[in-house]
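2-oxo-4-hydroxy-4-carboxy-5-ureidoimidazoline decarboxylase, pasting as requested.
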Amino acid sequence: MEPSAPLAAFHAMNDDDARAALLGVCASPDWAARMLAARPFASAEAAASLARELVEDLPDAEIFTALDGHPRIGERSGEASSSSEQAAVLASGEDFLERMRAANREYEEVFGHVYLVAAAGREPEELYRLLLARLGNTPDEELAVLREELGEINARRTAGLLAPAEATPTRDDLVEVSTHVLDTTTGRPAVGMAVELTGPGGRVASGVTDTDGRIPGFARVPAGRYTAVFATGDYFPDGLYPVVAITLDLTPGKVHLPLLLSPFAYSTYRGS
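Structure tokens follow.
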């Protein structure tokens, strides 16, 4: 299979230009050097997968160096990738941004570095709640989370660098996805359950069920095959299912996905 035009162009770059492009993805020189040494890549997907894997073996010092390339959540930056990833946050009102600034200060007092999170596809309030939850981590636990989040960011950015640009879908091409989780043992909404939607390129949306057990504006995505992953084990720790993963073929329009859940059974259907 012929490489995509962006991938072929990257392979044709001299080492200095290719290194500069990779440092635009991640500020760790060690990571960039390892990616550079792996050229040529079989595909943009293979490169994105390696981009994630290499983070697992980076020295701790390189993880912290990589943080230099990431602004605070809610902080405007001249860096295009960060601005795009944080678009929803930056469009939030001043009340939210002030709460986020205060939370950033608290996080940095605890850990001594910026709060890093894969912001793309996540709602601002979720990013805020995740920060507060991570304040309870030990330094070693937080370092492990940093690696996971940095790996996700690097994979997404590498795919964006090397994959061909996709045509922007029109409103009529998109699928609006919502979900609702009901605890059938009580007949009440399942509140506070984390849900992710993943596609061929990884996570495209995530959220947490509200007081009605719903995530109304969960995702708006192009048609295709996706998997909704419900963190049911956190809700029923002694239940049978640590997660419930439902794979869907989504077509343009509106799709509501209810999940009826008990510790040892679940069912789902296309709602309205």
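Note for the archive: The chain is about 45% helix and 25% strand.
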